[in-house]
Specification:
The complex is a heterodimer. Chain A has 12 helices and 12 strands. By secondary structure, chain A is α/β, with parallel strands linked by helices. Chain A folds into 2 domains: about 140 residues, Aspartate Aminotransferase, domain 1 (Alpha-Beta Complex), CATH 3.90.1150; about 240 residues, Type I PLP-dependent aspartate aminotransferase-like (Major domain) (Aspartate Aminotransferase, domain 2). In chain A, helix 6 links the parallel strand 5 and strand 6. In chain A, helix 3 runs parallel beside helix 4. Chain B contains 8 helices and 17 strands. In chain B, the strands form 3 sheets. In chain B, strands 12-15-14-13-16-17 form a 6-stranded antiparallel barrel. Chain B has a 5-stranded parallel β-sheet with strand order 3-2-1-4-7, with helices on both faces. In chain B, a hairpin with a 2-residue loop joins strand 16 and strand 17. In chain B, helix 3 runs antiparallel to helix 4. Chain B starts with 12 loop residues before the first strand and ends with a strand. The chains are: A alpha/beta, B alpha/beta. The interface between A and B is medium-sized, with 16 and 19 residues.
Amino acid sequence: MNRIYFDHNATTPVLDEVFDAMVPFLKDQWGNPSSIHWAGRGTRKAVEDARESVSALLNCTPIELIFTSSGTEGDNHAIKGLAYAQKNKGNHIITTKVEHPAVLSTCKHLQKEGFEVTYLDVDKDGLISLDELKAAITPKTILISVMYANNETGVLFPIKEIGQIAKEKGVAFHTDAVQAAGKIKIDVADLNVDLMTISGHKLYAPKGVGALFIKRGTRLVPLVHGGHQERNRRGGTENVAGIVAMGKASGIAIRDMEKETEHLKTLKERLEKGMTERVPHIKINGHPDKRLPNTANISFEFVEGESLLLNLDMKGIAASSGSACTSGSLEPSHVLVSMGLTHELSHGSVRFSLGKSNTVQEIDYLLEIMPPIVERMRSMSPLYAGAK
Amino acid sequence: MAKKGMTVLARKKVVVAMSGGVDSSTALALLVEQGYECIGVSMQLWDYSKKNDSSGATGGSCCTLDDIHDARRVAESLGVPFYVVNVEEAFSKEVVDYFVSSYLSGATPNPCIKCNQILKFEVLLKKALGLEADFLATGHYARIEDAPWGKKLVQGVDHSKDQSYFLFTMTQPQLERVLFPVGALTKKEVRERARALGLRTSEKAESQEICFVEEPSYADFLSTRINLPSGDIVDQRGRVLGAHKGLFNYTIGQRKGLNLSGGPFYVLDIDTINNRLVVGPQELLYSNGLIAGEVNWINPEARETAKESLTGVTAKIRYRHHGAPCKVAILPDGRIKAEFIEPEKAVAPGQAVVIYRDDEVLGGGWIECALK
């Protein structure tokens, strides 16, 4: 059976170059980067080289970057760390209804501790209103957290404009850039961002490593207390191999970005155009232009997205719908519901997120097998019979 | 996968509904052994995380995240693909809302039957067919056998574990597409097979309580959703004997928890119109028959006979009931009247009555009232 992977927003395969770069740090170079002796010196250099590579991806200085275990940890660290550090200044946080659970659950937790959180609505294109954002800011507001790109739809938020508003109001600004990093050019120097989360495994490094950009001068209460690693910002001996991998992956992302963006755009357009031509009653979700080059989120009316995914899986095609929860079950997407999609349409959504290794042939294979699957599922739907 | 040179036979595909317990685990293992192409599926019925978002502990007894984890691990150990399907919405609407509204109307609901009827044999069966499966299998102790007129539903070999009572709503198209692989085994044999195969669920305790009730009792669960005021406990003649704590706390035939002096008293009637609980001595608990609606006949010959009078049959009026010898007749409106040979105790509206001839389920319905 063909195995085709269209779920790069969930995770990406580890590139051979990345794997080769990290192997020495799983074998011969096992020293603790905090050690002063010969065993630690090599690994310390490797960690700092990686920090430089990753900082180049975001255009920040290396000392503004700490390594974490994941995007989720980065979001927790940024939001809780800032909230605790500024709790004497205020207790109000502004975010959106369409954030990743790493942000939403953290905010919900802070609400239990007495913080107040405003969750901004999005419009049908998946974007927030900047006027609503401005209106939501109060003298008690200490943090705005808005994602760079939405994981489900790929919708890109106006980070620069939000950063400008935050700066004018003197409020800290965090962005979860887990889906954007490596896929589009990011320049924190130009963005007025104070905190930015990224994750290794979304950019062809392995799971278990991420990074958090903390703009110089931003005070955060640490999430993980411990030794002096990461300049006292995060305790725990460094995940050297993972960090090296993330550094290598960042270098490759910078090197290949232009070419990759073109490649992904071509494939995505072929997919969306082909699907629109071949399958009636579909809707492409998210703003038509302000989207990641790799993400196509499509609602198939009269069909459950879940059933489509299982059928696709049986044909060897990996795609997804909404965000995977702990049980591996599929929740109705809070993102699509927030965008005002009908119940029917939000249940019938499938996310195809493309990556480096995908080919035109793979897209064409999907376009070939999808129409009969959708037709068969629809033939079992009483609603479809009524609509025909 | 067929080897090169072999004739490729299309293997029958089965979706196996896995609760995470030993019965459905063994059902899957047996089907794999028999050469079916299997897909394991667990239904996520209820969002336990809403209540236990920090502890992670769950009080329910089946289909919790831990159970889904077990189901997944069993499927993985047998090399079978496994999926979780989210059916929370249907479950909440068809099972939980029904459960709550039954108590509001003074009836004693049976959510397990509704769950089988709608979640398993409508929603999940449809999903299975959508995956191009030939069959849906579950771990029920019941059997489906060929009859001249179609498929008949028969009690499981292990009568002490028989679950055919919960399956009386099944239709012919469903019976044709459903497999009960453990119905031909005893519980003991199922555990032995599970043990021999090294299934991680082999020693797992059985689920007993209502799965979505995490509170200490169903009444505690109901009290979080509905507010029924307390009222009078009266005898047959309307004399006030005491006070009840909200009608949903009681079922027909209940003796404990009434806190009345004298007696013993038994609950005879739940009068939701006047918010009264009617109690009396045990002898008044007996009835001569019942009327049931929403009838489903599985055996068409029995239905024909019952248009006159169906004799030599027994009626189970609740799960684990011994089965009361009776005769059954279809009323002009399609409901059924069952007349017991000997008076029967505690007929509870809202429960199902299932009609058997020997070990075959002929049909059943939902009890509307007892005939005194």
